[in-house]
Amino acid sequence: MDFGNPMFLWALPAVLLPVILHLFFKRRKIRVHFSTLLFFVKKERYFAYRRKFYEILLLALRTLIILLLVLALSHIFFKRFNFITGGSTEAVIILDDSMSMQSNLAAGGTTFDFAKRKAEEILNSLSGDDGASLVFLSGRQGINQTRDKAEVLKQVRQAQITAATGSMSAAVQSAIDQLRKASGLNREIYILSDFQKNNKPSRAISTAPLENCRIFCIPFTGSSENLSVEGIELDSTPKIVNRTVKIPYKIVNHGKNTKDVKVELEIDGKTVQTRQLTVKEQNSASDQFVFVPVRSGRIIGCVKITDENIPLDDKAFFTFSVSGCINVLLVRETRGNEPDPFFFLRFAIDPVKDNPALGIRTETVNISGLTGDRLKNFHIVWMSQGEKLPDDKAMLIRRYLDNGGVLITLPSGNSTQETYASLSKVSNYKLYNVYRITAPFNKTGLRFNKPLSELNALLQLDLIQWRKIQQLRYPAGNVIAVNGEEPMIMEQPAGKGKWIALSFDLRRDFSNWPLLKSFPVAISALINYAAGNSEKSLSYVCGENIELYGNKISFSTTYGRSGELKSKDGKCVFSDNWLPGVILFSEAEYEAAVARPDSSESITGSVDSGDIKSFFDSPAALLDIGADITSQVTKLRNGTDLSGALLFLMLLLIAAEFVIGGSPGMLLEGIKNFISRRNKS
Which CATH architecture has domain 326-531? Predict the structure, then answer.
């Protein structure tokens, strides 16, 4: 409570005037002596009690009338927030730039455009000495506290929507941190948001450390209808020219009405296929496009729809690299007249040189000629090593694996458990050397586990006759193939790639398998599976940073931005990540990245107005977006004037006193009788 004219409070003692007059004119009993009561009419005593009750009621009414008059004249008002008149104000505007703010309003335009107009109203309500700052809910850079409100206004007008979601708690904390450093006495936080359910904090946001702070929430509610395309996940198989690529997609209807929608497949900026789907309310529909690339290189595409609400989730981007074939580098030792360890392998998968009919091209190199530049051009390195792998070559292989390469290793007749031990050493023992001793193995057959288990029904693998193997340590990774309980092929993750170890050589001294018809089919399937890890791209949600390693990395995006990343200690961070699309990198371990919208922002569901106040552990005021922001804030700053209500109540009490007293009032009558007696005396 506060008073605009506190000088009238000096009249509060006048409230006692009715009490004084009541006591002064109180009826006194008079004793009269009579000889008999025979001639008196007997009256019930309750009439005296009723008269006494009326007198007390009139006394209370008259006391309240004077009290209400004094309080009304003192201009009493109720303040919900403390506001120091004459002190400067520091205001922080939290503007929700998340994707859901693209929803349409019934009156036209988007909620984000309307929120920006309301932000301008807030800035216009501030005086010249007041400060302002702008915080974006998504977390992207705004503008810190400043007296230059024109600069803040410029930032508001230039603000663009993002496909990120952001954090309400983090945004409010950022506002609190700025207000702590500000010098103004009055501190205000304005939150302009649709208050999505996905942004409701897990616990109430605390503003207790910040004194004299007021929170104003301005909620926006747009259309509840929306269609979105979910992020596309391609399989890991290598993409080869003239081989089909399946592109699955899922259309989600978040609204309350069934929708007919046209779905388009766009490749390199051109629509190549279309579908027509009907998606029921609060449901989804899935299908897939089948695309056949006719060229090698990187393919950039998207699945898109046309929807009038929230356009940023109407496209789901994807990218993949297409090879003319799978490139396999065969690395061997030169040991005199030793048989070629890759003779049967080369004949099975690449029989005609320079004509990779099976989509697999091989190249052979001696271990001494292995270089880092050569490794970059191959999906798979297939190595046959007898002597111990040199440390310098092991370091090259480790870097190749760290960048997503695939290594397949074979034992040879003179291999030992130390042959590939250097790979474990140079990786600080993060890679496990699975090889043990070479031992006789007089058994038959082979059985593949997932993901190659389908080969078991297609091939006559029981015809394989084993002579010896180099035993593998078990379990040291994922077992791809077994003979009984004996692991025959194992893989383990290695950096961003993988290391696949075979327990057998591909020559006849280990088995008869190279002579069987099942050998080319199984080996081709293994190569295709292994090369599936060679795609050097990644997927992330808009708003997340991408860490890259390199000294001079440049980038370009499908949404028209390009540049060079700043490097610090060989590390770069790509943070221009607010819109969905594909980002291409050069001189980095990744060639591309796909940015997808945050799917929670496609669900147009806001919390109830009453729940908004539960976001905070201190009082928060909800402002009406349909009314002028300045007048609402001014009213809340000044408080609610109770004078009019008190005057109205006083008139009601005067009317009640008139009805109960049966005259203009016994109070006035008593005053008149008092004056007349004084004149007679």
Answer: 3-Layer(aba) Sandwich (3.40)
